[in-house]
């Protein structure tokens, strides 16, 4: 059982912009949903976990199985798979070439990557597109290639930042089902502002607002906090943020 612990981490972008404030939480194996509107601090949190952003110089810590990630360095990053929100893909590359490139960045040897890539592309239902240029891919196909890149090396911690952004309902269901299958023996953290993306698959939900963790728990625990109307996660989202984004 893996353990990712955040201890009072903070991030300021300026004196006025406090992106994360004393954020603490412990993740164990399973799927977690980070819910909140754009600007809540979700992407900042994910970029700090993945070491793309450094926390403020204070007493905050990020621990992987009891050791600080800043000390583990490459050892931690080798256990990590990250799908960023932006689709920064080389459109002249084939999916196969792109995944080989990502595999090299993860220091996977060529034999290992050539064994993994076809299996991962089958898992994301893109086998027939393996040798096609990504410039011709739909938004949903590009998202699935990015998920495939996050899965290379069989990571124990997978971070998915808005994996269904801009996709139609059918494509969102495909990705949701795919993620659900992955969450049995890994820590998977999904950032989204769309309640339906995670309400059926998440072990726990974290509500984030203006850099603060304002609530967390299982869905049955959370919906009991709905003050009026039907006890649903969408109504709790409306209670905290004022609207539900579809």
Structural class: alpha/beta
Report strand %.
15-25%
The number of helical runs is 9
CATH superfamily grouping of the largest domain: P-loop containing nucleotide triphosphate hydrolases
Number of distinct beta strands: 10
Biggest sheet overview: 6 strands, mixed
* Termini separation: 34 Å
Number of domains: 2
Instruction: Look at the structure and give the mean pLDDT.
Output: 89
- CATH class annotation of the largest domain: Alpha Beta
What is this entry, summarized?
The protein has 246 residues and is α/β, with parallel strands linked by helices. It has helices at residues 42-49, 69-72, 74-77, 95-105, 110-123, 139-151, 169-182, 219-223, 233-241; strands spanning 3-12, 18-28, 30-35, 61-64, 67-68, 80-83, 157-161, 187-192, 204-209, 212-217. Helices cover 33% and strands 24% of the residues.
Outline the structure in words.
- The protein is an alpha/beta fold and about 250 residues long.
- The chain has two domains: about 160 residues, Rossmann fold, CATH 3.40.50.300; about 70 residues, no CATH class.
- Helices cover about 35% and strands about 25% of the residues.
- It contains nine helices and ten strands.
- Strands 6-7-8-3-9-10 form a six-stranded mixed β-sheet, with helices on both faces. The protein has a four-stranded antiparallel β-sheet with strand order 2-1-4-5.
- A hairpin with a 5-residue loop joins β1 and β2.
- The longest helix is centred in the middle third of the chain and has 14 residues.
- The radius of gyration is 18 Å and the shape is globular.
């Amino acid at each position: 059982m893996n353990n990712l612990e955040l201890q009072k981490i903070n991030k300021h972008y300026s004196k006025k912009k406090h992106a994360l404030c004393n954020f603490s939480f412990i993740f164990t194996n399973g799927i977690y949903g980070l819910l909140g509107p754009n600007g809540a601090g979700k992407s900042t949190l994910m970029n700090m976990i993945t070491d793309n952003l450094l926390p403020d110089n204070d007493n905050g810590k990020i621990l992987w199985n009891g050791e600080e990630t800043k000390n583990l360095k490459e050892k931690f990053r080798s256990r990590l798979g990250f799908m960023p929100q932006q689709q920064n893909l080389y459109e002249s590359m084939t999916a196969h070439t792109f995944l080989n490139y990502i595999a090299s960045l993860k220091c996977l040897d060529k034999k290992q990557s050539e064994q993994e890539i076809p299996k991962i592309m089958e898992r994301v239902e893109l086998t027939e597109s393996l040798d096609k240029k990504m410039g011709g891919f739909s938004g949903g196909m590009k998202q699935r290639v990015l998920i495939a890149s996050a899965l290379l090396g069989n990571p124990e911690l997978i971070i998915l930042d808005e994996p269904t952004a801009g996709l139609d309902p059918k494509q969102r269901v495909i990705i949701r089902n795919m993620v659900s299958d992955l969450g049995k023996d890994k820590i998977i953290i999904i950032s989204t502002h769309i309640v339906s993306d995670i309400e059926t698959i998440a072990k726990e939900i974290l509500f984030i607002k203006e850099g603060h963790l304002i609530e967390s728990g299982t869905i049955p625990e959370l919906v009991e906090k709905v003050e009026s109307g039907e006890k649903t996660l969408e109504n709790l989202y409306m209670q905290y943020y004022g609207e539900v984004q579809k």
